[in-house]
Inverse folding.
């Protein structure tokens, strides 16, 4: 995947006559090091850990470039904006807890089949992302415990 991403970046930079900077390639490599979603802060921390320091402006400009050429996907989630490598999986679904912000990917073969078989007018599909918002089981358990405590306190006060 990383090799494919490098080829896409090389082609884009060549066609647009932009420079092949070490920063762009270091950021690309760091992105494809993550196994899932990451924040800008996490990406910056990984680069610093590898002793490759880039400015915030360079980081954001490079992410914007990678979004444009579909090397990275941006997800605006409940708690913050997260990114992920685009070439890993162009079609997938996320379940997002509206209480704690936990994000997990889920496989929905029926949804994937429906989208794959759909015909769009004058448009070539490349992939999709689906967000399903709700409350995770951990937060549901906490809510249940809180409700039970409130109910218990009400009966104790009578």
């Amino acid at each position: 995947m990383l090799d494919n991403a490098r080829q896409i970046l090389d082609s884009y930079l060549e066609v647009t006559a932009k420079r092949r900077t070490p920063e762009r390639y270091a950021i690309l490599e760091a992105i494809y090091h993550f196994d899932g979603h990451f924040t800008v802060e996490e990406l910056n921390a990984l680069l610093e850990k590898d002793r490759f320091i880039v400015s915030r402006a360079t980081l954001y400009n490079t992410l914007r470039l990678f979004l444009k050429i579909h090397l990275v996907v941006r997800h605006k989630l409940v708690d913050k904006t997260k990114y992920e490598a685009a070439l890993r999986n162009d079609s997938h679904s996320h379940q997002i807890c509206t209480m704690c912000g936990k994000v997990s990917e889920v496989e929905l073969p029926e949804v994937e089949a429906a989208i794959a078989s759909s015909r769009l007018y004058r448009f070539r599909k490349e992939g999709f992302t689906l967000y399903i918002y709700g409350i995770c089981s951990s937060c549901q358990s906490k809510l249940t415990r809180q409700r039970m405590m409130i109910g218990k306190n009400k009966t104790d006060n009578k």
Observations:
- The CA atoms of residues 16 and 78 lie 36 Å apart.
- DSSP finds six helices and five strands in the chain.
- The beta strands are 72-76, 81-85, 91-97, 103-106, 128-134.
